[in-house]
Design brief:
- With about 725 residues, the protein is α/β, with parallel strands linked by helices.
- It is built from 29 helices and 16 strands.
- Strand 14 (about 645), helix 28 (about 655-670) and strand 15 form a beta-alpha-beta unit.
- The model is unreliable at about 190-195, about 565-575, about 585-655 and about 670-690 (pLDDT under 50).
Length: about 725
């Protein structure tokens, strides 16, 4: 590598025996207006102060010399944005110059090689997407210019700045050229053909260039196209990389790379590590750069289908609809798996019908898991990102892929993650479907009821009981009941847009006509004979929940035991605990997850139900909104067991927040006597003022009766056996 002393950029570019080429793997020209204004201010400061201004490094290497013409091609590794901007400024100075001979000298000195053949005529060869506009400016063909391009926008800005400098400050073209001459650069020749020199890619990665930071997409494009070699760069850029950009979109390339790497490695690749991970795994998964760029191009097609399901609607309409479902469910973590499946179908390794069945399993499980909160969002994401892909890749029997995945999700080895029908029905009737999944759920239910595929849009979904009610129009409904039920499935239905707007906050009687005339059967089936109240909402919600059980498939019957999986260092102690607990014959399922040094024991549904208050929900003053399980967390410390009791998910309403406060107030006032016991209540809902008393009673019962009994039984069993 050889670097010059600082010298003027105009001296660097004015030679008549060279041409600079911006390689195809570089990003497009993207200086903004502020960069241009700063450059021009530096030029004016040079005129005023007669002092040099350091403009940065220009890094290049020689790509070849034409022995007949004597012209040399230099490939710009860094500095192409600055050189392009200076060239545009020089073109602007030329085009604001009145003397024709001066204009011609500016062109021949800085912008073109007049005596060169066509390949070397324009001194700076742009990447293809910028080339036509730039060359039209240099050659003065203004009628051929795309005026929406960044190249033209900045050239036009420079012309306006030049014009203002001439009229406002009486600067001449000579003054402006002198100011440009004060911009100094250090030219670094990589001497890439010489033995022992660093590769252009290594230099490129180490440069902190002026302008916008390089993205993972920029770095990957440069890496791959440099690897294929100079003679193939243009071909691979046009035939492969541009196809990737078209399929994926520039803004999504980093995400596409990340998802593709997960597909290959089965590892959850973190954001902003895409390029590093690609280079680390490059030789393991690809034979060379040509293989890599071809595979990326191949899979970019399926990423495009995921982002644009309508792209396959003509050839595979059912697949298109299911891809739309997955999009509505915000299944971005599952992108690697979906790409893997689409590729199998597109290359005839699986049929599209088989793939559709797998999509149905994924959608059914994830939807049930999300609305029931059977596991947290992070674990759902992990399963969607890598676990499902692992299941599918490792299928080891004659079952279809859909049946195999259905079994694995229903028999997850660490704990139950597939909600039962009872759990799903209960959550379905009470979930806030106006906040999440409202179009998706209405479309699926509507299609199952009437096979009607008429599109439902978000704005067409009606609240039968309005979001804001007046007591005279909606008598007998308390504020608490309204908040609890207004956004649930029983109260939501699709309605023609004009009717939806017309209904507004009217009484139910005023809405009946529009409901009966709806385009959707699911709405026409609303019972309009007996008015509309909380009981009506609950009844309709229960009916729709029954339909939902068949729309989103149920889990298979569990046949696999929950397995023990711990770090090796704690395995023996954990096994001993589990064995002793099993001897008690208590109705629980054992589970041991790798989390700190804790052993987890999740109670079965039967035992859990015995802890949940047996209060008639239609008559009772409060309910546990999401008390789906109790979790006992134990640590082996001097024969002691610490137990925590947990209830479901986070608070999502004022009532749930009030419930949490009531529990915590009670626990703080009446703390348990055992110092190893703590109670973690989440997501309780109170519907009436007298709910606090009922909740206190239940909490007291659990703390005073259930936990001590379990403690005694467990303590008796483990005492003296675990050190």
């Amino acid at each position: 590598m050889k670097a010059t002393q600082p010298d003027s950029i105009t001296k660097f570019i004015k030679s008549n025996e060279l041409t600079f080429e911006i390689p195809v793997y570089q990003r497009n020209y993207d200086w903004d207006i502020e960069n241009c204004e700063k450059l021009f201010e530096d030029v004016l400061e040079g005129i005023r102060s007669k002092r040099k201004h350091y403009f940065g490094n220009i890094v290049y290497y020689e790509a070849g010399r034409d022995p007949f013409s004597g012209f040399t091609r230099y490939i710009l590794i860094d500095g192409q944005q600055r050189i392009t901007s200076v060239m545009l400024l020089l073109a602007a100075v030329r085009d604001e110059e009145e003397d024709e001979s001066n204009k011609a000298r500016l062109t021949s000195t800085y912008l073109t090689n007049e005596k060169a053949d066509e390949n070397f005529r324009v001194k700076l060869k742009q990447v293809e997407t910028d080339r036509n506009v730039y060359e039209a400016i240099v050659e003065g063909r203004m009628e051929a210019i795309n005026k929406s391009s960044t190249i033209y926008r900045n050239y036009n800005k420079f012309r306006n700045l030049v014009k203002s400098a001439k009229t406002g400050h009486d600067y001449t073209s000579t003054d402006l050229l002198e100011g440009i001459n004060y911009l100094d650069i250090i030219a670094i020749d990589l001497e890439s053909e010489k033995e022992g020199s660093e590769s252009p890619q290594v230099i490129f990665e180490s440069i902190n260039a002026t302008g916008k930071a390089l993205s993972a997409a920029d770095l990957l494009r440069n890496f791959l196209l440099l690897e294929v070699g100079t003679d193939k760069q243009e071909e691979y850029y046009k035939n492969y990389w541009l196809v990737i950009e078209k399929n994926v979109g520039n803004d999504n390339i980093s995400d596409f790379i990340r998802r593709y790497l997960t597909l290959e490695t089965n590892e959850d690749i973190k954001r902003d590590t895409e390029y590093k991970e690609f280079k680390n795994s490059y030789k393991e998964y690809f034979t060379d750069a040509e293989d890599a760029i071809k595979k990326l191009t191949h899979y970019s097609k399926y990423y495009h289908w995921i982002k644009r399901p309508e792209a396959v609607s003509k050839e595979h309409p059912k697949t298109s609809l299911l891809l739309q479902d997955l999009d509505d469910l915000r299944m971005i973590p599952a992108t690697p798996t979906i790409m893997w499946l689409l590729e199998k179908a597109d290359t005839a390794q699986m049929s599209f019908d088989e793939v559709n069945d797998v999509f149905d399993v994924i959608a059914s499980w994830s939807f049930r898991a999300r609305i029931t909160n059977i596991i947290n969002t992070g674990e759902i994401g992990n399963i969607l990102t890598t676990k499902i892909l692992e299941f599918l890749k490792n299928k080891d029997n004659e079952d279809s892929y859909a049946d195999y995945l259905w079994f694995e999700l229903s028999n997850y080895r660490l704990h139950d993650i597939y909600p039962s029908d009872d759990m799903f029905r209960d959550a379905f009737t009470r979930y806030d479907f106006y906040k999440n999944y409202r179009r998706y759920v209405q479309q699926k239910l509507s299609s199952s009821i009437s096979r009607d595929q008429t599109e439902i849009v978000l704005e067409s979904i009606e609240h039968i009981m309005p979001q804001s009610i007046k007591p005279d129009k909606w008598p007998g409904i308390s504020a608490g009941e309204h908040v609890e039920w207004v956004n649930t499935i029983g109260n939501l239905t699709p309605l023609n847009m004009p009717d939806n707007l017309d209904n507004s906050n009217h009484s139910f009687a005023d809405k009946v006509a529009n409901i009966k005339n709806s385009d959707w059967q699911i709405t026409r089936e609303v019972d309009t004979e007996n008015g509309w109240n909380i009981e009506s909402i609950q009844k309709r919600g229960n009916n729709l929940a029954e339909k939902a059980v068949s729309v989103w498939r149920s889990p298979k019957q569990r046949t696999r035991d929950i397995e023990l999986a711990r770090r090796v260092g704690n395995m023996e102690r954990a096994k001993k605990y589990i064995e002793l607990i099993n001897e008690l014959e208590l109705p629980f399922i054992q589970i041991d997850e790798e989390h700190s040094n804790n052993t987890y024991v999740r109670l079965t549904t039967d035992y859990m139900t015995s802890l949940i208050p047996s209060i008639d929900r239609d008559k009772g003053p409060w309910r546990s909104g999401s008390a789906y399980y109790y979790e006992f967390q134990s640590e082996s410390t001097s024969n002691r067991v610490r137990i925590s009791l947990s209830f479901g998910a986070d608070a999502v309403s004022e009532e749930q927040t009030a419930g949490q406060k009531a529990v915590m107030d009670f626990v703080n006032k009446y703390p348990p006597k055992k110092d190893w016991l703590y109670f973690r209540p989440i997501g309780w809902t109170l519907n009436h003022e007298d709910g606090e008393e009922t909740l206190r009673d239940e909490v007291y019962r659990v703390l005073s009766e259930v936990i001590p009994r379990f403690e005694q039984e467990l303590d008796d069993a483990v005492k003296g056996h675990v050190g």
